[in-house]
Amino acid sequence: MSAEATNPEAAPTDVTVRRRGRARIDLRRLGRAALLNATAGPAPRDRLPDAISHVAEAHRAHHPEADLTVLGRAYALAESSHRGQFRKSGEPYITHPLAVTLILAELGAETTTLTASLLHDTVEDTEVTLDQVRREFGDEVAYLVDGVTKVEKIDYGAAAEPETFRKMLVATGSDVRVMSIKLADRLHNMRTLGVMRPEKQARIAKVTRDVLIPLAERLGVQALKTELEDLVFAILHPEEYETTRALIAGHPGAADELGAVAEQVTAVLREAGIGAEVLVRPRHFVSVHRVRLKRGELRGCDFGRLLVLVAEDADCYGVLGELHTCFTPVISEFKDFIAAPKFNLYQSLHTAIAAPDGAVAEVLIRTHRMHKVAEAGVVALGNPHVGQESDGPGVQTEDGERIDPTRPGWLSRLLDWQQSAPDPDTFWTSLRADLAEDDEITVFRADGSAPGTISLPAGASCIDAAYAQHGEAAHGCLGARVNGRLAPLSTVLGDGDTVQLLLAQDTVSGPSPEWLDHARTPAARIAITGWLQAHPESAAPPAAPTDPRPQPSVPADRRPGAELHADLDGEPPAAVRPAGCCTPVPPDEITGFRVRGGSVTVHRARCSAVDAMRRLGREPVTVRWGDTPQGRVTLLAESFGRPGLLADLTEAIAASGAAVVSANVEPPSEQRVRHTYTLHLPDASGLTALMKAMRDVPGVYDVTRARHTGGLN
Q: Is 329 exposed, middle or buried (0-12, 13-18, 19+ CB in 10 A)?
């Protein structure tokens, strides 16, 4: 590890400050060491070759008990097989695997990874075969070497690069060490890219920017990511790079300004009895460029941040409390990635404080262990298969796939959707889009089934959640409940939301083209696009009227409703009829009121119009049902829009023996549709069964009696 990661078991009052320390693994200097003694040839059998002495030294710093014999054998095979090969820079080719291995050794990779790193180009570029690697070094090393070996361009043509990355990602799904080797390989290649033609430099830099840097971020390997960003920045944005370089050179005293704040922080922590190491952490070029775009003119403290390293998690919060007590905190800058770690394993407290002179300094607070993981990510976790049961390292499924129990959610999603993207162009485009999402959320499944959570990229909608949970069955998704409330499928989900997806029971329903406007994940977009291509008729505009005004009700028949009688002291009314606002049917409790023309309007006893009539001074009239069981009722059906819904509702109504007197369908709003039906019931006692049958129609989420207030005629 870097020299800044000191003894985590220091005494409580051991607070140190380094004004010019760099708490970041300095990978830039490591490549030079790989050139030393690279051509010294094989060493005597009883000692390690001099060429890998730097690798051995770095490896022993992290793994004091490591057996280096296997590294000597791997170097001997790599050196002999690459002998006579040279890089475009003129250096012996063996310097490349040595430099890659040294990068990984400094990050703390274990012996198996370093062995595979030394051999990572042998199968691709020499006469060494994968079977030979397996015989001499075992299945794990062979798996890692095969994972980073490119596919043959003669077999794949222009699709070779996408298919190589697909192969690499699938291998990473079983063992993340595959991608660790690839990232270190790309870093050394980017360092030596100057010998390439400018157009080739730009092409490689763009792939690095779009694919490798996001992968380094997701795997938490910040030490690789930051240098890759600077190298890409210099190639693709040379003017901005030079401006940033000049800006940094123009502020030589920036470290001293931060150092002064660091000394104040050190004094505060020492007085509080908190053991800590306070380091000045300069920003890399891209970070300075981003801060300049965000803040405009930069001050000295903007060129770096303070890093406070402590022994225990609780000490992180102790440091935070002291800083916020003794300095003025910038509350908007506070983030707690310890209680809620980022999806790439990153843990730290972020805050910013204002010193008495007005200088604002950003502060990172973490333990030594957190710092190691923040810098080296998955590399710091070692062999992901250690401790697995039964078959030991590299447990396999029935189809031969190795299982990595630490596989992150984003990688599982990627491996799922790539299976549905056989076309290399679709895979390549979707991969770049997927990796462009730089944050992740977790939503909870309301049904309580395992697993209880769904991991999605930030900005994902209910549509993405549906395909993540149900796969192709999500084609029949009708709507969702988010945090218990009905929500359209376009609803963007937030971290911690609870979501329940409502699916149609039939197999005919499918997505609409509009879903693509709200789908963020490649899995959802590929599935929707595939279904629409297989059902081109579904993409055609609906034949339904587009007039936004409510359609007029059309009477279906004029059959009479249930008999009603009114007691008016022997005076016959002109008519006794049910009110249109609540359409009572037997055996509803009812009450009546005289209206203009001498007729009596009958309401359900709990209708809101009854209270309105009484406030107007209208006297109620005693009414009762006659012997006829038939009746007329108005029902309101609320549903999610889908093809064939109106036909299914009408069929359910007809199957219950009811007749449609009039119907009104409002234009869809946020994928929801309201249907109003006035129905003639041959037997009013069947109303409950009718409403249940309508609710059972896929897409219908509620059916109620009409409750609107009509005119008070």
A: middle
Q: What is the pLDDT of residue 506?
A: 62
- Selecting among 14, 50, 91, 124, the annotated active-site residue is 124
Q: 154 falls in which pLDDT band (50, 70, 90)?
A: low
Q: 399 — phi, psi (to 5°)?
A: -90, 10
Is pLDDT at 274 greater than 60 in this prediction?
Answer: yes
124 is catalytic: yes
Residue 401: pLDDT over 50: no
pLDDT digits (tens, 9 = 90+) for 587-617: 778 888 877 666 788 888 878 788 888 887 7
Picking from 154, 218, 144, 217, the residue whose alpha carbon sits closest to that of residue 182 is 144
Rounded to 10°, the helix 177-191/111-118 angle is: 50
DSSP-assigned beta bridge partners for residue 676? 636, 664
Question: Which residues make Cβ contacts (< 8 Å) with residue 630, sequence separation at least 6?
Answer: 559, 560, 561, 562, 680, 681, 682, 683, 684
Measured distance CA(440)–CA(454) in Å, rounded: 10
Q: Is 702 a catalytic residue?
A: no
What number of CA atoms fall less than 13 Å from residue 106's CA on the CB side? 24
Q: What is the pTM of this model?
A: 0.69
- The one-character DSSP state at 517 is G
| pLDDT reported for residue 152 | 76
Of residues 698 and 18, which shows the higher confidence score? 698
Q: pLDDT at position 300, please?
A: 80
How high is the pLDDT of residue 394? 42
Angle between helices 368-376 and 222-236 (to 10 degrees): 40
Question: Do residues 622 and 651 lie in contact, with contact meaning Cβ atoms separated by under 8 Å?
Answer: no
Instruction: Supply 686's token pair.
Output: 């069947």
Token pair of 383 as six digits: 């062999």
Point out the catalytic residue in the list 50, 125, 401, 638.
125
Inter-residue contact 31 to 99 (CB < 8 Å): yes
How many angstroms separate the CA atoms of 428 and 612, rounded? 66
Spatial distance between the Cα atoms of 408 and 173, rounded to a whole number of angstroms: 9
Residues 301/257, Cβ–Cβ less than 8 Å: yes
Q: Which among 379, 380, 403 is positioned nearest to 393, based on CA atoms?
A: 403
Q: Is the pLDDT of residue 185 over 90?
A: yes
- The label of the residue with tokens 């936004």 reads 548
The distance of Cα 334 from the centroid of its chain, to the nearest Å, equals 22
Q: Cβ distance 458 to 410 under 8 Å?
A: no
Q: Which pLDDT does position 604 carry in this prediction?
A: 81
Supply 536's token pair: 């081109």
The Cα-based distances of 178 to 141, 142, 144 in angstroms read 10, 11, 5
DSSP conformational letter for 677: E
**Whether residue 279 has pLDDT greater than 80:** yes
pLDDT of residue 67: 86
